[in-house]
Design a protein that fits this description.
The chain folds into three domains: 25-226, Nitrogenase molybdenum iron protein domain (Rossmann fold), CATH 3.40.50; 230-371, 3-Layer(aba) Sandwich (Rossmann fold), CATH 3.40.50; 392-423, no CATH class. 45% of the residues lie in helices and 17% in strands. The chain has 16 helices and 14 strands. The model has no long low-confidence stretch (mean pLDDT 96). The structure holds nicotinamide-adenine-dinucleotide, L-histidinol and zinc ion (ZN). Residues 131, 133-134, 231, 253, 321, 355, 362 line the site of L-histidinol (HSO). Its EC number is 1.1.1.23.
Length: 426
Amino acid sequence: MIRILKCGEVADEDILARAIPTADVGSVVAEIIADVRKNGDAALKKYAEKFDGARLETLTVTPAEIEAAMAQVTPEFIGILEKAAGNIRAFHSRQVRNGFIINDEPGVVIGQKIIPMDRAGIYVPGGTAAYPSTVLMDLIPAKIAGVREIIMTTPPRRDGSIDPAILAAARVAGADRIFKSGGAQAIAALAYGTESVPRVDKIVGPGNAFVAEAKKQVFGAVSIDMIAGPSEILVIADGRTNPRWCAADLLSQAEHDTMASAVLITDSMALAQAVQAEIERQLPKLERSEIARAAIENNGKIIVADTLAKAVEIANAIAPEHLELCVDAPFDYLDGIRHAGSVFLGRHCPEALGDYFAGPNHTLPTGGTARFSSPLSVDDFVKKSQYIYYTRDALRKAAPDVAGFARQEGLTGHARSVLSRTEEKQ
Ligand SMILES: NC(=O)c1ccc[n+]([C@@H]2O[C@H](COP(=O)([O-])OP(=O)(O)OC[C@H]3O[C@@H](n4cnc5c(N)ncnc54)[C@H](O)[C@@H]3O)[C@@H](O)[C@H]2O)c1
Ligand SMILES: N[C@H](CO)Cc1c[nH]c[nH+]1
Ligand SMILES: [Zn+2]
């Protein structure tokens, strides 16, 4: 049963605590990465068999497999994918940035340009559930950014196939190449390359604890978006909120992963008790009730605070992936929310709306990293480069200052390089 904690009666650490996987994920992942670096495709196939139960001849998804998948999914589902993709494109198109150029001073031009990544790797989770929505969320911003080549990896099913809905979403969103590999081994392949999987410049996408740890370990050899691990929901609700809706929203994220987290903060003990009972009533009805129950036991809690202002303070300390504001006048609270991946405003905005359809991204920082990370966006798929142009006259004007600065640092070579151009004839 989900615990009720009363603020002031329990220690702050208990309120903020979050269980993390007990297995030694770090060393397991380090071993897998070393193996993939050494043995390439053979290691990927070995782990596909070990962890996914799939014996693979080849790791590459063929065009024929994508065609077959398109025929397997219903036209209704293709229609939903396209509608969702339209909303996601509309939102992410607004994130596109332009370079800039400044020539305020005579003879000086300085600027910054925006360059899409050459090659991005998108990890799509697929261990305990297939996530076609993540395909759209992660691929569409890359496409909009203008990435030259988008590589997607996802774990195979036991029969060696990929869920057709995943392949259909990849077709709608425009993946260039798709590989059957999951977990830490897929991240290692994207970071270092294998015979089949090309090395990428940046890896994005959520995953379980093994995926998140692998992204941490390969960072530096390759860029990563963020650590997007087990899903999290934090609901702030006042006493006028329907407990059935609260319970359903908490369970919607609990069903992702046994280590997912589901937290309600309310100023009403009556609501807290009603939601506690409602969770017990709804849990057995879920298809993934065992996963959701484990998550509720590991990382589920209801915190009763004296005021909603205190609820916001606790929410900022937790920095959740998703934050629902089920209160009157939700926009009044928005400025006060400083740390959350995505905020859902009002009682008619369940988090699932953002998971699939509204348009903002669902790949979001977890584990408190919303304190310093942002949702996946077009920015993740571009980098910047600067440029400088000076005429001889402009350089002559700047030379004494540059040389003075260089001498201060004891770098007379720098001073020389500037002065030589202004003192000597061409
Ligand atoms: N933050 C987000 O935006 C977001 C979006 C969707 C899903 N998620 C999260 O992604 C996660 C998906 O997890 P998943 O497990 O279903 O799929 P996954 O694809 O992340 O992981 C499956 C892989 O984990 C590896 N693995 C499993 N057990 C292992 C072991 N004992 N040792 C080494 N490797 C092992 C296997 O290689 C397997 O292919 C969930 O936690 C879900 O909450 C997050
Ligand atoms: N809630 C997940 C992010 O934590 C995203 C997702 C995909 N499908 C359903 N939900
Ligand atoms: Zn979800």
